[in-house]
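Treating backbone geometry as a discrete language has practical consequences that deserve illustration. The amino acid sequence and the backbone structure tokens for this protein are reproduced below.
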Amino acid sequence: MNRKACLAVVFTGFSALVLADADKAVTEMDTADLLNMQVISTRKKSQVTSASKKAEYVSNAPSAVFVIGNDDIKRAGVTSVPEALRLAPGVDVARVSSSKWAVSIRGFNGIFANKLLVMIDGRSVYNPGFSGVYWDAQDVMLEDVERIEVIRGPAATLWGANAVNGVINIISKRAEDTSGGLLAGGGGTLETGFGALRYGKQLGEDSYGRVYVKGFQREGLGQVEGFAASADNWDKQQGGFRIDSRLSSRDEWTLQGDLYRSQLSQNALLPVLSSPYQQSLIENFSAAGANILSRLRHTFSTSAEYSLQFYYDHSERGNNAFAKQSLDTLDVDFQNSFAIGERQNAIWGVGYRANLDEFSDSPLIQPTRLKRDTHLFTAFVQDEIMLVDDKLWLTLGSKFEHNSYSGFEGQPTARLMWAPTLEQRVWAAFSRAVRTPSRADHDIRFLNGVIPTEVPGLGTLPVEVVLNGNRNFRAEDVLSYELGYRFAWASQASLDLTAFYNDYDNLTAYRAGALLPIATPVAHLLQPITATNLGKAHTYGFEAAAVWQMADWWRWDANYSLLKTEFGAFVGLAQQTSPQHNLSLRAAINPTERVSLDFWLRYTGPRSVVGNGAGNQLRQLNGRATFDTRLAWKVLPSLELSVIGQNLLDEGRLEYIDESGIIQPGGVSRGVYGKLELRF
């Protein structure tokens, strides 16, 4: 993808919009407001939520829902989506390098975590190569994010495979709410330089549009004792547009798209057959992509409507240790909601997705076939029944899918919501969800490492440990049990509690085969390890989130999560675990109308990770406390200056180690940066 051509398209659209005047409209929401707002997903605009694909208040959602508002993101001082996700309870975020994060919900974390579904405006950013997310490719203009909806626990009945432990839906503002211009920029120690420019205007009587460009340059993280220098500088350029149009009194249409290109560096530790059996290699490679999405919504009445959504997504990653990759995704989704009498609300839908991917051979990865096209056919139905007037509701539904790897899968759910008072909600849920196999599970041979081994009569020989895909690998599945309670006291305080128990079956486990002698290129042994579905695990715990508006100018936000993980008899490789304890405490203070001050204290408990190399020995990382702060001054109604301090309690903190043992991690250091935000 040509960078100049991509930017030329965006700047051309930008120039066309700037030529006309537009009224300014900026929508800002904070957490306190969001506690009682409607959780609305853009998949069906104002009538659909991430929790149940229909408009409903957070307190009425029979699932563990948390909403990160635009003002929360701004006041936290974060500069990326993964860092913003630290605001939600139950979400484990660990930084590996400048451009890589491990993100999961309720355990099973890793840079290749595969039990979390992530969407941007209803567009899935799941990668079928490993059933996970490349976080360095998922960037948005944070100033234009309306909110991030986080569902903890299975949501596969509505959203399908990969929504095993949760769903993250990043929802951008409507074009109507971003009229006018916005210029944001700044820089500092780790955030060397960043900038964003957006302009929106009214295009017609009932049509609005916006375009944006953004970019940044980030320094690599610091070196950690025991690891090579991370050498992970990262820069990226991105642009896009959005158009929202009311075609008639009953029809609304959205068209949006993005394109990006980034340059990444990483220090890869490659296994080799000669002593010391590892070779450090600094890699520089590029990643690029583009997407376009169209959505039409037709309203029949206040209780009936349908939506049709289409998107196309292209992404590519240059040559690196994990091979050159490209992926084209085509997705079509239809859904219809309607009332059945006065007590039932039903929704159903069908969908189709095609993934066309291509891999190249690399020193680490050899696909059994370089190209593969896979197809996913889906259908779902869900019915919400009011059993007792405004007191008790039962929700039943199921997702039915057929994929190219494991065939047919069913993912049902049953949810019960009870409202003992206007201020309280109690809910319970049972769900089944699956993680469908990926290319890595079926088709890919991965060189995990080389271990020198003493062989009687032959001396020391290198043993090449190779993980092999398995065409008979089936879907992983979970049976989940949840219980939740919510309480809101006027507009001053709220409490949200959730307890859960998850029973996992058919998890990935590895079975070692017989050692094979290999003569070339040097004499060595080959240890094949094959993926199987012999793994089992249980997780249980609870999550709590609270908000207290102590005064008109002072608000507290706190959340805590407890996670216990018990693995069954895994075969082969060691299993890493997520922290048992995560705590977050934020204070948002407005001492004057023009000055805002924020403090954010976080604690993450100890975790076990797989150390570098093929030995797969578990390594314990100590718990850590982190403190961030932000001071902002609104010089003018349209101009704000801010300074942000991050990770102020320690220097060179190791948060995570790449589970493959290939990418060298960096130490997260203290950082300070300044920011200017101008609206015009």
Remarks:
- The CA atoms of residues 493 and 548 lie 4 Å apart.
- The chain has a mean pLDDT of 88.
- The first helix runs from residue 3 to 18.
